[in-house]
Amino acid sequence: MVPLSYYLVLSGFLFACGVAGFLIKRNIITIFMSIELMLNGVNLSFVAFAAHWHSLAGQVFVFFVMVVAAAEAAVGLAIIIAVYRTRETLNVDQVNLLKL
Amino acid sequence: MLSIHLILFLAFGAVCVAGAINLLAQTHPINSALSLIAVMAALAGEYLLLGAEFVAAVQVIVYAGAIMVLFVFVIMLLNAGVEEHTSGSRVAILFGVPGLLLGSILLAWVFLRHSGTVAVAAGALPGDPRTIGQLLFHDFLLPFEITSVLILIAIMGAVVLASKPPTAPAGKVD
Predict the structure, then answer these.
(1) What is the average pLDDT across A23-44?
(2) Which residues, 6 or more positions from B154, have their beta carbon under 8 angstroms from its beta carbon?
(3) What residue in A sits closest to B160 (Cα-Cα)?
(4) What pLDDT, in 10s, does the model give residues B101-148?
(5) Cβ proximity of B92 and A99 under 8 Å
(6) Interface check A88 vs B, CB under 8 A
(7) Looking at chain B from residue 42 to 101, which residues have their Cβ under 8 Å from any Cβ of chain A?
(8) What is the CATH number for A44?
(9) Which residue of A has its CA nearest to B89?
(10) B99, burial (CB in 10 Å: exposed 0-12, middle 13-18, buried 19+)
(11) What's the CATH architecture for B7-83?
(12) Domain boundaries, chain B
């Protein structure tokens, strides 16, 4: 038997790591991976709460989060490719103007 | 007494934590991507401990499989190198890492203090494909259909964004 709070602590830590990576990383692909880490942390708390409240709705929500993550990854990586094509860099510090 | 459930939870949790920290510590994106795959695989183990077997399988197939393959593919396609830091990002690290530690400790303290006694039994809730499918196609039918539209739009958007722009007519400055 594992207390629910252990799962929540792990989930919160993963989310906090994702936020920290989003803020301190300079590579646009790594920033994108930090977002995926945040989504994974949220998914863990969904599944833990589903087991806690005996409701499968939490597990179904994980699938919706995964679908949104997949759509986001496809569009986001396409945007990254488009940005790299026009600016020849992946560093977000050098992508600070809308103007080319 | 350490039950086998708790030992497995701690083992998978340690892999998760180590992978998440390694994602932040590595400077090359491919190393970050590989540690993120480790985090996702360990999370699939946690889902199995919670009885969500179908979620665990989908986590490995979709997340650790499809999405991360897409990431690795883009990293290799763009030949992403080691990231360079500026003074601004060093300040962010200086304040961000203690902030992360402080936030995590605060969060852990709140969770452990206010819900420390509630335990989740192993496999308390059978998340097999049959039950999940019945729920997904009855109670959640409308959201399911809407997400299919979302996926369709995302596919079209990805194709439009990633496709090569048509060659500019002569005289136009790019």
Answers:
(1) 92
(2) A70, A71, A72, A74, A75
(3) A78
(4) 888 888 788 877 776 566 666 555 677 888 888 888 999 999 999 999
(5) no
(6) no
(7) 43, 46-47, 49-52, 54-55, 58-59, 62-63, 66-67, 70-71, 74-75, 77-78, 80, 83-86, 88-89, 92-93, 96-97, 99-100
(8) 1.10.287.3510
(9) A24
(10) middle
(11) Up-down Bundle (1.20)
(12) 7-83, 128-162
Judge whether residue B153 has pLDDT over 70. yes
- Domain limits at A45? 4-94
The answer to whether residue A41 sits within a structural domain is: yes
Query: What is the secondary structure of B115-148 as a DSSP string?
Result: SSS-EE-TT-S---HHHHHHHHHHTTHHHHHHHH
Residues of B in contact with A81 (CB under 8 A): 74, 77-78, 161-162
ipTM of the complex: 0.92
And the tokens for B136? Answer: 């997904």
Q: What is the DSSP string of B39-94?
A: HHHHHHHHHHHTT-HHHHHHIIIIIIIIIHHHHHHHHHHHT-------HHHHHHHH
In a domain, A100, yes or no: no
Cα atoms in the 13 Å half-sphere on the side-chain side of B140: 19
Tell me the pLDDT tens digit for each residue of B74-108.
999 888 777 776 666 677 778 777 887 888 888 78
